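can u do me a favor
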């Protein structure tokens, strides 16, 4: 668990170092490569940073699960996920925080001092990093309760 937080701190620190250039454009991409395959329902929303979330998450076996940050997988790059914001959906995906998960984080920033790229990989027990790699999305209702 401590290794997980250390790895996340390194990823965030590299992002903060990139963010020091005031006139920069930055982009971070998170991809789930491993974890527990699951099917959950919930409501798709967006964070202030533009990331996609799944809130009011539940599955048939465990019931309510909280929330997830949605991430890409080899099967889905999230290009069409914006079409489902505000909808109640069923997502088949990979939960990085269940079992032995694996996240890949790629950050790029371009500013007056040039272009900076960083790549990180976090794997192991990723409890506390609630990322859900999306394989497929099925709309259940066009609005969330």
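np, heres the sequence
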């Amino acid at each position: 668990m401590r290794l997980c937080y250390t790895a996340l701190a390194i990823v965030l620190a590299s992002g903060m170092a990139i963010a020091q250039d005031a006139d920069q454009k930055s982009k971070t991409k998170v991809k789930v490569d491993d974890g527990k395959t699951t099917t959950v329902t919930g409501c798709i929303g967006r964070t202030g940073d533009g990331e996609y979330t799944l809130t009011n998450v539940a599955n048939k076996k465990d019931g309510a699960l909280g929330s997830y940050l949605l991430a890409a997988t080899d099967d889905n790059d999230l290009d069409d996920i914006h079409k489902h914001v505000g909808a109640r959906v069923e997502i088949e995906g990979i939960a990085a925080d269940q079992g032995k998960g694996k996240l890949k984080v790629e950050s790029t920033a371009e500013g007056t001092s040039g272009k900076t790229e960083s790549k990180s990989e976090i794997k192991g027990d990723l409890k506390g990093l609630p990322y859900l790699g999306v394989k497929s999305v099925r709309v259940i209702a066009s609005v969330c309760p």
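The radius of gyration is 16 Å. hope that helps!!
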